[in-house]
Amino acid sequence: MTNRVVITGYGVVSAIGNTPEDFWKSLKSGKTGIGPITHFDAQATGISVAAEVKDFPFDKYFEKKDARRMDTFSLYAVYAALDAFNMSGINEENTDFDRLGCIMASGIGGLEQSQKNAQVILQKGPRKVAPLYVPLAIANMATGNVALRTGARGVSRAEVTACAAGANSIGSAFREIKHGYADAMIAGGAEAAICELGIAGFANLTALSKETDPTIACRPFDKDRNGFVMGEGAGAVILESLEHAQARGANILAEIVGYGNTNDAFHMTTPSGVGAEKAMKLALEEGGIKPEEVDYINAHGTSTHANEETEAAAIHNVIGDKALVSSTKSFHGHALGGTGSIEAVATIMSMQNNFAPVNAGTKELDEGMTINVVLGQGQEAEINVALSQDFGFGGHNAVLAFKKWSE
């Protein structure tokens, strides 16, 4: 016997809003969060724009001392998780916290801490490295800090699968509940890598867009796309078994029904498309979904030629050309290990609101893109079944299948 798994809460930190309401308002209106880099002087990197978090409401959940004990990616993770947790209504009276788990993701962890402390050791010597450098920087501390703040004592680990990590964390949490190892899970991902080392590393890999106009810097599936735009932030969802959610009278937001997880085993940074196709098929199979039933796909859509040539082909081969397709990275940038969870929230909200966001920067589709990319403006549509998919360096592929909630 397996359990049905539902979503009862979500939270988000992003360049387009730090509440679900603000986040959705931006997606609905077509307002992108991409703009000039302000976190540091980026001129020497050759990159001028990113999708930075703005007006982060630190005081809502944190005190000054927390900024010294958590890197920014952990702060984002905790904030999104607490918002999701509070929305869900889970507490120690209605939930056994020994069966409440937490799986959070980060592709890099505290990259800025590594940059700062590397400079310190070179300039001042090893004894000046911050005593808390390691617990600030290691990627699993998103999970650790969320568990500390919520009291989740069950299943606990971190996903570190590059750009697929945020989706992998939700898929893993889904399986823990489906097969009876947990009653409820906090899952998501976070990243804060818009620093000199992060931008320079991806820029020198020729992965980032050098476009100076923020409105067209990220243009998924466009014939003139030329690289991704770095983002930051976090997304988190609360998953529960249907039985547990109904027993406590929870407000159910969506159902997660399938998860596909594969590896291309092909190339360090370039996708083959074969693994993506297999992951999509696995998610559909587990969810009992026919390809023609998929209404909307929140694509990986990084605004790079390597990704979209293979992703568009995979969508065409597995789903066909009926489903609406958009990449919300055109709004919130590519938040690496946090992006899959941010996009999962966007996908769930798209189902709730029957609205597919536009590809914000896309003007003219590349030749051969036969898929149904949302252009010009967002589109009202009945969305009962949706996929959210992310593919990461190292060949990692993660596809989540959601259904609109129905008894």
Q: How would the blueprint of this fold be written?
A:
Blueprint lengths: L4 E9 L6 H10 L5 E2 L12 E2 L13 H6 L2 H17 L11 E6 L5 H14 L8 H5 L3 H10 L5 E4 L5 H14 L5 E8 L4 H9 L28 E9 H6 L6 E10 L10 H14 L8 E3 L6 H14 L5 E3 L2 H4 L6 H15 L1 E2 L15 E2 L5 E2 L4 E8 L3 E8 L4
Parallel strand pairs: 4-5, 4-6, 9-10, 9-14, 10-12
Antiparallel strand pairs: 1-7, 1-8, 2-3, 6-7, 8-15, 11-13, 14-15
Helix pairs in contact: 3-6, 7-13, 10-11
Question: Would you write up a description of this structure?
Answer:
Belongs to the thiolase-like superfamily. Beta-ketoacyl-ACP synthases family. InterPro entries: 3-oxoacyl-ACP_synth-2 (IPR017568), Beta-ketoacyl_synthase (IPR000794), Ketoacyl_synth_C (IPR014031), Ketoacyl_synth_N (IPR014030), PKS_Beta-ketoAc_synthase_dom (IPR020841), Thiolase-like (IPR016039). The active site is at 163 (for beta-ketoacyl synthase activity). It catalyses: a fatty acyl-[ACP] + malonyl-[ACP] + H(+) = a 3-oxoacyl-[ACP] + holo-[ACP] + CO2; (9Z)-hexadecenoyl-[ACP] + malonyl-[ACP] + H(+) = 3-oxo-(11Z)-octadecenoyl-[ACP] + holo-[ACP] + CO2. There is one protein chain. With 407 residues, the chain is of the alpha/beta class. The chain has 2 domains: 5-247, Peroxisomal Thiolase, Chain A, domain 1; 258-402, Peroxisomal Thiolase, Chain A, domain 1. It has 13 helices and 15 strands. The strands form 3 sheets. An 11-stranded mixed sheet has the order 5-4-6-7-1-8-15-14-9-10-12, sandwiched between helices. Strands 2-3 form a two-stranded antiparallel ribbon. Strands 11-13 form a two-stranded antiparallel ribbon. The longest helix is centred in the N-terminal third of the chain and has 17 residues, at 72-88. The radius of gyration is 20 Å and the shape is globular. The two termini are 18 Å apart. The relative contact order is 0.19.
